[in-house]
């Protein structure tokens, strides 16, 4: 029907979109972020000769490396998706075993004790389609789990955006002023390529 076709197409479109987002994000972080931020501390120049002052000012300016923060963000965003896929695989494997037991009449877990037998069962279930009538098969519903995983991903994105705003802000200033021990007076520090980093 048209609804089934729409759901299949939207599901496929969602998977393609997710992969593109992941690949584009990884490409931006690795290909653009790493070259831009690999020399961030060396290019952080302060107008002082006081030993340790530049390091303290840099730590105040950037408590966490932007590049490492974005890598942690990308991996964290992938965790709910991985958990959802593992849950779906587990549910499908359980469904295949239960359906096989209904059709073949398993006594308890007899014959399902070894992992090799379970693998053989899953392969035969896929090949033979369990030899059941169409009326006996039911479609597994993962919409609740998908919604939960989508909410977790959205919350993680919002949380990381909030943390990034409080740690770094959304714009990189050209000059950063700091006054902290061991600096003996107010020190101005200059950030390399601030416009490119803001973009």
UniProtKB/TrEMBL annotation:
Single GO cellular component term: connexin complex
Transmembrane residue ranges: 12-34, 69-89
Protein's membrane topology: Multi-pass membrane protein
Connexin cysteine-rich domain mapped to chain residues: 156-199
Residues forming coiled coils: none
GO molecular function: gap junction channel activity
UniProt cross-references to PROSITE patterns, sorted A to Z: CONNEXINS_1, CONNEXINS_2
Subunit architecture: A connexon is composed of a hexamer of connexins.
Family note: Belongs to the connexin family.
Full protein name: Gap junction protein
């Amino acid at each position: 029907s048209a609804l089934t076709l729409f759901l299949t197409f939207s599901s496929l479109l969602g998977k393609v979109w997710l992969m593109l987002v992941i690949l584009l994000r990884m490409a931006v972080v690795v290909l653009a972020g790493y070259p831009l931020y690999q020399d961030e501390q060396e290019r952080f120049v302060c107008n002082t000769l006081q030993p340790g002052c530049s390091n303290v000012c840099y730590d105040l300016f950037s408590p966490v490396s932007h590049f490492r923060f974005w890598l942690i963000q990308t991996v964290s965003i992938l965790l709910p998706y991985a958990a959802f896929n593992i849950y779906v695989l587990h549910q499908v494997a359980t469904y295949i075993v239960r359906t096989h037991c209904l059709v073949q009449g398993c006594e308890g877990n007899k014959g399902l004790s070894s992992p090799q037998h379970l693998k053989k069962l899953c392969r035969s279930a896929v090949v033979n389609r369990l030899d059941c009538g169409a009326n006996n098969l039911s479609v597994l519903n993962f919409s609740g789990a998908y919604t939960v995983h989508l909410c977790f991903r959205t919350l993680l994105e919002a949380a990381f955006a909030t943390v990034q705003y409080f740690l770094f802000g959304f714009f990189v200033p050209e000059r950063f002023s700091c006054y902290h021990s061991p600096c003996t007076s107010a020190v101005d520090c200059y950030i390399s390529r601030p416009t490119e980093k803001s973009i």
